[in-house]
């Protein structure tokens, strides 16, 4: 029972909860700066090297199809342990690598997590091809929460030993990757148990979403209590135990469907998730009319509808009652009425003609109902065949990189999320410039709200896409929210800024992989996804190290000179610290301009793909009125 794709999803979620530790950089960046006597530009250079670790995952994506996913997990664990281990040895003065060598090991540390992320994301996307946005929301929300989870562990058991925190993030995630590697594997999706059909699958997804949202709210409450009452170590120990208990509830996901709906008998499902020809009051038999409805009533002997006009009236009454709540109480099984052979042939012909008109291969969900009339009279449900939404011809990395859509997506991520990572990497220094202590609190809040951003964007993107709304439109909305974040940070509102940067930055990591799989397919998704994700380290290098860091260093010089006196200037330069709103003012203005460029790129990508998403939705919904083409 536990050896199924749901158990694999649980394993992937737990591993992903250990792969977002690059976002905890603010916890130990100031410690690195003081211990190793680095300038702010040097520290931001280490931050950029950390972000370049994501490009290491490109190799994992290219090689993903050549060996089982567990191999990728093991390689990731070794890289993670080695990189963070060297960083811990450095800050504890056990070794003294050069600055360049330290940057290389920081890249290796985060690269190990990127390898594990590749295995989790690609495997889960292939195991759940019908729920891409939802699955990405679950996985990436765990990445977002990882910073808060490890911050709580740090405050409970290690604080204020920052060096000990580096040892924790070196050992614990690597151990989790090795222990859970066997759960990250492919499961067949062509034949599915009834529990894996869309209505039942959504019950499981809602259970998982509820757990993650509950964990995020729990952690949020913990940090709010810390800010109001200043919890001591005992308070955080109690909080950490509760957090681990909530995380352990994920183990019930593989069996949660039976727990939620029970065995057999009637159950409640969402009306919109029921196949059209099983909804009460929806007589969608091709050709329509009373005669066909009467024939349906005769065929469904013993199925809950007695037939004729009385059966139709009963159906309509049930439908009217269900419309207000969106839920319908079904029998033990959903009996599917197959389309007549001639109608099935017409539908397949329409789909074939639509595929021939596509200018770029893409992913479309195809639902086919068994054409056998004999099944309709059976007491059991007819067989339902689900064809995977993989495109007929997925694009390779080279083919994808030759399209304008690839580079628009690349630029949107690099500029939008790059702005977010520039803010996150410098949050400790922003807090110090405004004389705000306890930067760990902001790291935790950023992680928690990043989780909400990932969950919300993943779920909303699937919801909007089913209605024909282009998924890239949500990328433009995320970049717009990032601009609002910059306004709050410029005014010194660090608390509000941490919430908004978490929401907007997290949204990218649910949206970008889903958009990439939509436009370029799943066959080579590992390589394409990591190639697009490599935009972030380039954005971080330019926006964080070369712009934000260098401008901060210039402001330090101006601030120290304003103090007057040789002794005061010398001491100020030695501490290399700037105080006041002006320290990051210029950088925030430049980042705002970059976000405007990100919005423009996302808007252009939305315009270029709107026909594609409308057509995709029309095929899923069997919309006979829609005849638009593919991607321009």
Automatic annotation (TrEMBL):
Residues 404-614 form the NFD4 C-terminal domain. Residues 277-385 are annotated as: Disordered. It comes from the Eukaryota. The chain crosses the membrane at residues 6-28, 70-91, 97-116, 137-158, 164-184, 205-228, 234-255, 406-430, 442-461, 473-493, 499-520, 587-607. Residues 5-248 form the Nodulin-like domain. It holds the Pfam family NFD4_C. Residues 343-352 have a biased composition (Polar residues). Keywords: Membrane, Transmembrane, Transmembrane helix. It is a multi-pass membrane protein. InterPro entries: MFS_trans_sf, NFD4_C, Nodulin-like. It is found in: Membrane. Residues 370-382 have a biased composition (Low complexity). GO terms for cellular component: membrane. PANTHER family: NODULIN-LIKE (PTHR21576:SF120), UNCHARACTERIZED NODULIN-LIKE PROTEIN (PTHR21576). This is Uncharacterized protein. It comes from Chara braunii.
